[in-house]
Task: inverse folding
């Protein structure tokens, strides 16, 4: 069994930054793609960013390109999401996800974290 525990969410103002962390426990972490999804009220859950096991291949949603950066530290079983220039439309619950394969676009999620709230005020 794999457990994903997120941290780092909170309430910030537009233009601020946050860094989310997700630490995995259980089965091997380092060979599988990891990513961050988000779900805003009334909207579907969407993939924000994904990374391959090495970190050499990444995916970003168009809405966050140039503002968000995903990274991972396999020695710590942790994946990060650095979010800069946050905007109110970034407000959502952010979920860490472990993919079922190597593709950073994470078409299939094997495990979900519990989610962490990010709220961006004007």
Result:
């Amino acid at each position: 069994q794999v457990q994903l525990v997120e941290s780092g969410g909170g309430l910030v103002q537009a233009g601020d930054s946050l860094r989310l962390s997700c630490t995995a426990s259980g089965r091997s972490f380092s060979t599988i793609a990891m990513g961050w999804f988000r779900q805003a009220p009334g909207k579907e859950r969407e993939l924000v960013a994904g990374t391959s096991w090495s970190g050499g291949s990444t995916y970003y949603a168009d809405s966050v390109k140039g503002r968000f950066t995903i990274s991972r530290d396999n020695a710590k079983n942790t994946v990060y999401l650095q979010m800069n220039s946050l905007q109110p439309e970034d407000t959502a619950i952010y979920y860490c996800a472990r993919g079922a394969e190597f593709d950073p676009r994470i078409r299939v999620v094997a495990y979900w974290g519990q989610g962490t709230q990010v709220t961006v005020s004007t």
User: Anything to note?
Assistant: The CA atoms of residues 36 and 94 lie 7 Å apart. The chain has a mean pLDDT of 94. The chain has no helices and eleven strands.
